[in-house]
Design brief:
Blueprint: E1 2-7, E2 26-29, H1 37-48, E3 53-57, H2 69-78, E4 84-87, E5 93-95, E6 98-103, H3 113-118, H4 122-144, E7 148-151, E8 162-163, E9 174-178, E10 187-190, E11 197-201, E12 204-211
Parallel strand pairs: 1-2, 2-3, 3-4, 6-7, 7-9, 9-11
Antiparallel strand pairs: 1-12, 5-6, 8-10, 10-11
Helix pairs in contact: 1-2
């Protein structure tokens, strides 16, 4: 099976949509589509007409420019099509016998200057979201044993990841897709200690297709 991966488009308006030609059955979007909820909704719904399923998690910029970020996230969930699956660590999904879970996985240490300027009630909101992320992700992994985990932030230090150029003969128990780090485009790599997880990042407006 082939899946498409993308993240960190940072769109600012509806007519800025990038043209995506599907190569896989479904697409994974690891956050940071836009800080504008209507742009996020339009983008996800547009992709939902091209793919069997659209799998998406919020990024940090989706939390910007709203007096109540929770309401903004609820608006996106409420107004996307039925085949758009928004991951928030509350439950996993199953597509083609693949169990998938995920969420933003943010923490106070990850925040940038722009996050602190643009996220309302930053410290309290992020602390609650961080606690939810970190307790829920381990619970979901233990209970669901997902094949694919999608987060905006990586679960390990990116400085430890080693890029792979050929994965055809390597077996991985899990695939962890993340975004946020713009220097990673079409990146596939491993961690020296957590060797059974394949880490994938494509912070780009061009899709990367992954055979699994």
């Amino acid at each position: 099976m082939k899946i498409d991966v993308i993240s960190d488009l940072h769109l600012t308006k509806l007519n800025e949509f990038v043209e995506i030609e599907p190569q896989g059955e479904f697409i994974i979007i690891a956050g940071d589509v836009s800080s504008d909820a209507d742009v996020v909704i339009g983008f996800l719904n547009d992709l939902s007409k091209k793919y069997r399923a659209v799998i998406y998690t919020f990024g940090n910029i989706e939390l910007w420019h709203d007096s109540n970020p929770y309401n903004k996230l609820k608006k996106i969930k409420k107004n996307t099509n039925n085949n758009v699956f928004i991951l928030d660590f509350l439950k996993g999904i199953k597509i083609s016998n693949l169990t998938i879970t995920g969420g933003i996985y943010i923490s106070p240490e990850n925040l940038t200057y722009h996050d602190r300027e643009n996220i309302a009630n930053t410290d309290n909101f992020i602390k609650k979201l961080s606690n939810l992320s970190r307790t829920s992700i381990h619970k979901q992994i233990k209970e669901l044993n997902p094949k694919i985990i999608v987060t905006h932030y990586p679960p390990v230090s990116i400085s430890k990841l080693k890029k792979l150029y050929n994965t055809n003969e390597i077996e991985f128990s899990k695939i962890w897709v993340f975004g946020h780090y713009h220097q990673f485009k079409s990146f596939i790599g491993t961690h020296p200690i957590i060797k059974d997880v394949l880490y994938v990042n494509n912070a780009s407006n061009k899709i990367m297709s992954l055979e699994i």
